Every structure is written in C-alpha cells, then in structure tokens.
Amino acid sequence: KRPAGAPDRSLARPVTKVGIVGAGLMASQMALLFVRRLEVPVVLTDLDQERVDKGVAYVHAEIDKLLARGRISNDRANRLGALVTGAVDKETFHDADFVIEAVFEEMSVKKSVFADVEKAVSPECVLATNTSSLSITEMAADLEHPERVVGFHFFNPVAVMPLLEIVRGEETSDATLATAFATGKALKKTTILVNDSPSFIVNRLLGRFMGEVGRIVDEGTPVPVVDGAFAGVAPMPPFVLLSLVGPAIALHNNETLHGAFPDRFYVSPALERVVAARKASYYGPDGSLDPEVEALLEQP
Ligand code: 3HC
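Above: inputs. Below: predicted complex with 3-hydroxybutanoyl-coenzyme A.
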C-alpha cells in the first residue's frame, strides 16, 4: 500500500529536456547532476549572456574534472558536454518537459520567473522550484497551470548530498508529483514528500540550530570557538556550513521561519550585519576567520 500522499508512479511523464532558470552556483550544480544522470539536453538561462556563459563553463569544467579523475570516459565527457547549453531567451524551453528555477530567494522574483517561463513552455511541462523556504502554493497561485508546480529542493553540495525534498502545493497534480519523484529517483537522490510549510523539514530544523548558534555568538562567544566545539561531531562546523550555504540564504531562512513562528526562531543581528556587508563567507581562503567578519560580529 502506498503511504498517504505518495504519487502514483504510473502517472510520471518522461523528461527528455530540462530547463534551468538561473546560472549561479546552485543552478550550475543542478545542471551537472541532471545531465550526468538523465543524459538529456539541459539548458541554463539567466538574465544576461555573461552569467549564462559562466554557468555553462562551470558545468563543462566539472565534466572535465570527472574525466581527469577517470570517473567518466572521453566519449561520455564529450556527449555530456554537448548536451549542456545556455541561452538568455526562455523560448529555448519550448520543448522542455521539466524546468527548474534556482533564482534569488524572493517570492516576487520566483513568481515573475514562473509567469515568464509559462509563456514559453507546453501546458504539461513541470515547473519545479528549488526554493528552500517559500510556499509552493503561493508561488503557483497566479499561473494558468498551477497544477504543474512542485518543490524540488536540493542540498549543498548538490552532487554529494543525498536528500531531495519534494513539496506538494495545494494545486500540484498527481502527474506533476509522480514526474518529480521519478526524476528525483533518476537523479539517484533520496526523495521525500514534505508539507508545503515554511522551510519544509531540513531547513526548519537547521533554522532552530543555526538560530541558537547565532545566539551563542551574539552573546559573545567567538565563532572559531563555536566551530571548534563541533570538531568530530558534525561533518561541517556551523559557520563553515553557513558559509557553504551563503549567509544571505541562511538569514532569509531564519527570517522566513521567524515570520511564521516568531516565538521559536531567532534572527541574529550579527548575521544581519554580515549579510548587509555582503560577506559571502565567515572564513578567508586560508581557513581563518575573515577579519572584516570578525569586526562586524564585535559591533554592538
Ligand atoms: N561539490 C562537489 N563535490 C564535492 C564538494 C562540492 N562542493 N565537496 C565535496 N565533494 C565531494 C568530493 O569530491 C568527494 O567525492 P568522492 O568521494 O567521489 O571523491 C566527496 O564529496 C567527499 O568529499 P571530501 O572527502 O573532500 O570531504 P568531506 O568528507 O569533508 O565531505 C561534505 C564533504 C560531503 C560536503 C561534508 O562536509 C558534509 O556533509 N557537509 C555538510 C553539508 C550539508 O549539511 N549540507 C546541507 C546544507 S543545507 C542546504 O543546502 C539547504 C539549502 O536550501 C540552503
């Protein structure tokens, strides 16, 4: 017997071409995974050609690394490389079956991206979002076909983290959900169905954890001491993880959760200062705490 809410597998539609909106690091990592596991054309789009070229170049460089490490043959590297292309115009999605967005984590931006993509794709094309915290139902609300929207949330680094959270919105159809699960399986991820609630499961739990970590630092404990406390406890110390994810994303997650559950989630003023200063990492290339971040943490 299928667990409640699980999709009927027979409804899954084939995915023969993938579109990715956004050509940043997360999107490029996703492009690599899709092309490697599905071996279908994957098109990256972004606002301008420079960003698109950068995303495509990242995927090609990662394919070269796999070749250099003997993970894939020369033939396969050439084949995969040729399958990854980029374009600014979303018209290129006209024959895609599965389009996923990984743009800025802001509801209005995501909604306008989906409205734009919907004009280019067929009515059956799945629109997936890699949002880490926002409502799938709300994101789909103004579309002509809200039933094709589904949450498809990867974790960083995309190539190695096994989990994929699949989020069903109020209007998501069984066929969309089944296609999302079949695609997740083809990507060799562990797929779980999660409720359309703020930050789903993993980021909600992480939000509690990172909030408490932030509070400890706000109370005066230095970041390296907090991180040092995790040696051998977790695969990555908290501020290394926060730097991998990106301080802005981590802050956004806790703001979203604080908005939904104000008594349970903490928004660290020090993290707000780090994000306002546009710092991408707490640590410098040599692995020591970035002095500018240190100064921001010490401000009242
Ligand atoms: N990209 C691609 N591959 C990577 C990578 C990266 N950034 N970092 C490491 N890898 C690969 C390595 O190539 C290696 O592959 P191999 O075994 O095939 O050679 C494998 O991962 C293990 O790497 P290492 O042995 O060098 O390093 P570690 O043992 O330290 O593991 C890690 C690296 C798997 C990233 C580990 O540190 C880890 O699990 N960290 C926690 C990551 C995590 O919790 N992510 C979730 C964040 S929350 C999130 O993303 C949600 C979002 O919405 C914000």
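The domain at 202-298 is CATH 1.10.1040.50 (N-(1-d-carboxylethyl)-l-norvaline Dehydrogenase; domain 2).
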